[in-house]
Design brief:
Pfam families: AMP-binding, AMP-binding_C. The protein has 617 residues and is an alpha/beta fold. Among the domains are: 297 residues, Rossmann fold, CATH 3.40.50.12780; 109 residues, GMP Synthetase, Chain A, domain 3 (2-Layer Sandwich), CATH 3.30.300. Strands 1, 3, 4, 14, 15, 16, 17, 18, 19 and 20 form a ten-stranded mixed sheet that branches.
């Protein structure tokens, strides 16, 4: 994942009361400065050393929040007409934890959770954290091949999924075909999967209102059978002897079907990251955060759920997946004080207001939020200030491997800083911009290079992939490990970081990471395709869109067309990977390459832009 206000803390490391609490800003610390106080001379900076890091597990910290704010609203699911307080969330997650334990979930087990934004997802998150099992969020849009690849790679023991996947702007998709792909005979009382041999149990959340018939599937465990309202649920689970450094969350950074990269995040990393994000937004228990981004993504789970839960604030899920109308209505009805989104989400919401489909009122309680995923154009930022009252909107930068946020603006940074930069480093985080030719060389200020970060927020590893881990996590001469982001960046004298491009070829479409290799491999399986290369093309709406170049020979039968290529990708992969532009080259052509044989994608991108300009597109 790429995602493109500090208060003094009380005993729980967070600002819990708006009135009477200490909300004075702490100064940012910078090193390697010049004669002018605090100004950097080279592109290295360090975030504040205060407040101290939380050295506890997520479950232990959550228990403190429940003790302080048990009667405060914790989760509000508008589409389910359901809401829980922190005390109720604690009890329900205790109940589900006991239920999951009864079907064999143990500490350290990898449990896939393939759900939309829902109460079940919110409860399952803390149930797994309390058990010491490892939460593995899976994108509900994944097809059977992608799900099997993810579960098999992690040797998952259990899967929690919904009867239907509700995707943006699409009809509900039944997950019965997926289940039948995983388990050939669901009529048996136990789960036997040839494609994921470690799979011992499947928990089904019935969200189809009876549209999906599962009455004959004896091997499935109903989610409702694992939860109860017994008074014992209010009693804490027995100690699990967990460590803050234990892996608690595995996030996939790529949808690659062959070998997905699975970033292993600890209690310590996501707990502190969520807490610091909330601090920089100045969240308190009185805040109500509307969170349209998905829980299967770090944006929803850490920037959203973990940030609110560490501050006793409420989080609102308008719908299972993004719905602009539902998001605006949730803000109005719940009097939300914060709104999250990627630029494409905000644009769609503003469009509804422009067209008069949603009354332009009821946004006076909004003050802050997070925009991430791609850069926010100046005009959009101004409209968000004016129309939605998001005068304290913050900008985040990070990646899944850093739990995820490393830099963030404050609520009172000047608007030009929120447009031109991703802010300064979070506490206890270090960053440097290094030469693309020599990673050991830190570049001068305002010079572009590759951004590298270090600190508590680094992932432990890519699951079962030491080679890929070693490629991005590199120790310096002093033994300090740095995460090399693959992003091109520069650092200003006062420590603001600007992302200027990507060293890697990652495409970011509306905040979603797209890896060209996945699409290229898919295209190479299309009849007659000899070679394929995928590049990102600038787009006003999505930031970037996918363009593909195909070298092909026509096989016998029907000719390849742009539409057939799009259909092929849509059927084999997720819909957001479908290319907007398709360019065909004859079999006698070849892609521009370096001397070492690597395709020069920047030249292909220039060709695409030239073609589109001549077309008037």
């Amino acid at each position: 994942m790429r995602i493109s206000s500090v208060s003094c803390r009380g005993p729980l490391r967070g600002p819990f009361l708006r009135n009477g609490s200490c909300l004075a800003r702490r100064p940012f610390l910078s090193v390697s400065w010049s004669g002018k106080r605090g100004l950097l001379t080279e592109s290295y900076s360090r975030g504040p050393l205060e407040p101290p890091l939380l050295e506890t597990t997520v479950g232990e910290h959550f228990a403190k929040i429940v003790n302080l704010h048990g009667d405060r609203p914790a989760v509000i699911c508008k589409h389910q007409n359901d809401r829980v307080t922190y005390a109720a969330l604690d009890a329900k997650s205790n109940s589900l934890a006991r239920g999951l334990e009864s079907i064999g979930v143990r500490t350290g087990d990898r449990v896939g959770v393939m759900l939309g934004n829902s109460m079940e997802h919110a409860i399952a998150t803390y149930a797994l954290f309390k058990l010491g099992a490892i939460l593995v969020p899976i994108n509900p849009s994944f097809n059977a091949t992608q799900v099997v690849s993810a579960l098999a790679h992690l040797e998952a023991s259990h899967l929690i999924l919904s009867a239907e996947s509700n995707l943006p702007r699409k009809d509900p998709r039944s997950n019965i075909p997926l289940l039948k792909h995983l388990v050939k005979d669901l009529s048996k009382p136990s789960i036997e999967s040839e494609v994921v041999p470690t799979l011992k149990g499947i928990v089904l959340v019935e969200n189809s209102s009876g549209r999906v018939n599962i009455s004959d599937f004896r091997g499935l465990t109903a989610y409702t059978s694992l939860v109860s309202d017994a008074p014992s649920d209010r009693i804490s689970l027995p100690p699990r002897h967990l460590s803050p450094t234990d892996i608690v969350n595995i996030q996939f950074t790529s949808g690659t079907t062959a070998m997905p990269k699975a970033a292993c995040l600890s209690h310590r990393s996501i707990l502190n990251n969520g807490s610091q994000i909330g601090d920089r937004m100045r969240l308190t228990p009185e805040d109500i955060v509307c969170c349209p981004p998905p829980l299967f993504h770090c944006f929803g789970s850490v920037l959203g759920y973990m940030a609110t839960a560490t501050h006793g604030a409420a989080i609102v899920f308008p719908a299972e997946s993004f719905n602009a109308r539902a998001s605006l209505q949730a803000v109005q009805e719940e009097k939300c004080t914060a709104l999250y989104g990627v630029p494409t989400m905000f644009l769609e919401e503003l469009s509804l207001l422009d067209d008069g489909e949603i009354p332009n009122e009821g946004f006076q309680y909004l003050r802050t939020g997070i925009a991430a995923g791609s850069s926010v154009p100046a005009e959009l930022m101004k409209r968000l200030h004016k129309v939605l009252n998001l005068t304290e909107l913050t900008i985040c930068y990070g990646m899944t491997e850093t739990s995820p946020v490393s830099a963030m603006t404050t609520t009172d940074d000047p608007i030009d800083k929120r447009i031109s930069s991703v802010g300064k480093l979070l506490p206890h985080v270090e960053a440097k911009v290094v030469s693309l030719e020599d990673r050991r060389q830190i570049v001068p200020i305002n010079v572009r290079g590759e951004l590298a970060v270090s600190g508590y927020l680094l992932m432990k590893e890519y699951w079962n992939d030491p080679v890929k881990t070693a490629e991005v996590m590199v120790a310096d001469e002093n033994g300090k490990v740095w995460m090399h982001t693959g992003d091109e960046a520069s650092m200003s004298p006062d420590g603001y970081i600007s992302i200027t491009g990507r060293v890697k070829d990652l495409i970011i479409r509306g905040g979603e990471n797209i890896h060209p290799l996945e699409i290229e491999n898919c295209l190479l399986s299309y009849p007659g395709v000899i070679n394929a290369s995928v590049v990102g093309i600038p787009d006003e709406r999505y930031g970037e869109v996918v363009a593909v170049f195909i070298i092909h020979r026509e096989p016998e039968g029907e000719l390849a067309t742009e539409e057939k290529i799009r259909q092929w990708v849509g059927q084999k992969l997720s819909n957001h990977l479908v290319p907007k532009y398709v360019f065909f080259l004859p079999s006698t052509d070849s892609f521009p390459k370096t001397a070492s044989g690597k395709v020069q994608k920047f030249k292909l991108r220039d060709v695409a832009l030239d073609i589109l300009e001549r077309r008037g597109t």
